[in-house]
TrEMBL record:
Keywords: Coiled coil, Disulfide bond, Signal. It holds the Pfam family Fibrinogen_C. InterPro entries: Fibrinogen-like_C, Fibrinogen_a/b/g_C_1, Fibrinogen_a/b/g_C_dom, Fibrinogen_C-term_domain, Fibrinogen_CS. SMART domains: FBG. This is Fibrinogen-like protein 1. It comes from the Eukaryota. GO terms for cellular component: extracellular space. It comes from Drosophila hydei. Residues 211-420 form the Fibrinogen C-terminal domain. The gene is LOC111597105. Residues 104-138 form a coiled coil.
Length: 423
């Protein structure tokens, strides 16, 4: 722009110079050309004289019709321009002037336009401001709602954390339970397996017992080849197990190691006690039933601590019922290499410490001999006495002697079997 202005200025400063030359020759009272030129520089003011051309016009004129004004310089160095030429020039300028006026008008319209637009912009701005206010109000309510929500969320988060803690605890508990459950399941499985084995064994045993039951006998005679425990059945009596030795002998009493206490009361001697594969007494009621059912013989086997073995046989043996005090009703003939130490007890009732059937009125023989027997005054044999681990001379011990010798025995067995039987 500065360049343009500079060019304009140069042209303008040349042209009026030529005019002023003519003017100065015609009218010397006119203001100096230079003043006008200076005025032209001020855009806001136009020259009054027609020869003083507005900047814009000058620039255009000069470019549009460079040849329009031809002037001659004469010998007096005056520049002459024909009036026609000037008129033409003026016409051109006037046209331009009109054109520019129109342009100005357009610009004015444009400004009005812009102002109206400014107004509508202002309206819009107002609207926007109103909207902004509404928005701010909404923002405030929303902000408060938001903060309330924040509080709620905080509360919920707290609850969630509490629940999470609880959940974790529950999960730990569950894991523990699962672990326990697993170990329990293992234990249960083991027990199941054991139950299976036991059930199998039980079935086997039951089969054995059933077989025994079918083959239940009233003596050990059918089992004469091997010793063992078998079921025995007698009329009107509950079946019971007995220990059978070889040759059809039924063991009714056994002492061998002192593992079973034999100092017992009447009821226990009636029912029997101990272990069939160890020390035991068969029981007086069974003894009564067996010997009442069929004639039996008695065999007593005695072993001393020095290894000496002696035997005593009686070819009859009957025990009475409980009303009769399990009396030794019949003993029969004796034979064997031991003494006949049973003879003195023939026809005697059985005595225990709580059921005194002996011949003494002032002595409880069962107490005195620490046993239970068919005591009379009191005894020459005491096979249910106290067990001593070594040979002991003691009236409470297990002894078998005709002459009141109380040397204790190492082991004894009493056996019975139906008599007059060929094995
Ligand atoms: C232009 O004209 C105005 C008003 O007539 C005047 O105030 C101003 O000083 C002038 N500017 C110059 C540079 O002559
Ligand atoms: C312009 O100047 C010329 C020559 O000096 C003069 O004749 C004319 O009257 C002037 N025009 C006006 C409008 O002042
Ligand atoms: C003046 O003339 C120059 C060169 O011809 C041109 O570039 C410029 O735009 C003109 N200025 C005006 C205001 O017309
Ligand atoms: C637009 O309007 C504002 C406020 O009324 C005013 O200040 C400003 O001069 C106007 N602008 C135009 C270009 O009219
Ligand atoms: C909305 O409100 C919040 C809190 O009062 C403020 O920080 C924010 O600048 C507001 N936003 C507007 C668009 O007003
Ligand atoms: C516990 O064990 C049983 C059997 O193994 C299974 O059925 C049950 O689902 C288990 N319970 C848990 C809580 O693990
Ligand atoms: C064992 O002792 C008894 C009685 O004291 C005796 O008669 C017997 O000869 C002894 N036997 C042995 C093998 O010592
Ligand atoms: C007593 O008789 C039994 C059986 O016949 C026999 O085994 C034992 O050796 C005999 N004892 C003595 C000391 O003769
Ligand atoms: C015991 O035996 C006797 C003699 O045989 C008899 O009179 C009595 O009724 C029997 N008692 C019982 C309970 O069987």
């Amino acid at each position: 722009m500065e360049k343009e202005l500079l060019i304009i200025f140069m042209i303008v400063s040349v042209i009026p110079w030529s005019f002023s030359a003519t003017v100065s020759s015609a009218k010397k009272k006119e203001p100096p050309i230079k003043d006008c030129t200076r005025d032209v520089k001020n855009k806001s003011e136009m020259c009054h004289n027609t020869t003083q051309i507005p900047v814009q016009l000058v620039n255009q004129t000069v470019t549009a019709k460079p040849k329009l004004a031809e002037f001659q310089i004469d010998a007096h160095k005056t520049i002459s321009i024909s009036k026609d030429d000037l008129n033409d020039l003026l016409d051109v300028y006037m046209d331009k002037l009109a054109e520019n006026a129109a342009t100005i008008h357009d610009k004015e319209n444009e400004i009005i336009n812009l102002q109206s637009r400014n107004k509508s912009d202002e309206d819009q701005l107002k609207k926007y401001q109103e909207q902004l206010e509404t928005c701010q109000i909404q923002n405030t309510t929303l902000t408060s709602t938001l903060s309330a929500r924040d509080e709620q969320i905080k509360g919920l988060l707290l609850k969630t954390s509490i629940y999470e803690t609880r959940l974790k605890r529950k999960q730990n508990l569950l894991a523990l339970h699962k672990k326990q459950n697993a170990s329990n399941a293992a234990a249960i499985n083991e027990l199941k397996a054991r139950v299976k084995v036991l059930a199998y064994k039980l079935r086997e045993r039951k089969d054995d017992l059933l077989a025994d039951w079918e083959a239940a006998t009233n003596s050990c005679l059918p089992h004469n080849k091997i010793s063992g425990i078998h079921l025995m059945q007698l009329p009107d009596f509950r079946p019971f197990l007995v220990a059978c030795e070889g040759n059809g002998w039924t063991v009714i009493q056994r002492r061998m190691d002192g593992s079973v206490n034999f100092y017992r009361n009447w009821n226990e001697y009636r029912n029997g006690f101990g272990k069939l594969n160890g020390e035991f007494f068969i029981g007086l009621e069974k003894l009564h039933r067996l010997t009442a059912f069929q004639p039996h013989e008695l065999f007593v086997s005695l072993r001393l601590f020095n290894g000496s073995h002696r035997v005593a046989f009686y070819d009859d043996f009957i025990i009475g019922n409980e009303t009769e005090g399990y009396e030794l009703k019949l003993l029969g003939n004796f034979h064997g290499n031991a003494s006949d130490a049973m003879r003195t007890h023939d026809k005697m009732k059985f005595s225990t410490y709580d059921r005194d059937h002996d011949e003494f009125t002032h002595i409880n023989c069962a107490e005195y001999h620490h046993g239970a027997w068919w005591y009379d005054f009191c005894s020459r044999s005491n096979l249910n006495g106290k067990y001593f681990k070594t040979q002991t001379d003691n009236e409470q011990g297990i002894f078998w002697d005709q002459w009141y010798s109380f040397k204790s025995l190492k082991s004894v067995q009493m056996l019975i079997r139906p008599k007059n039987v060929k094995i």
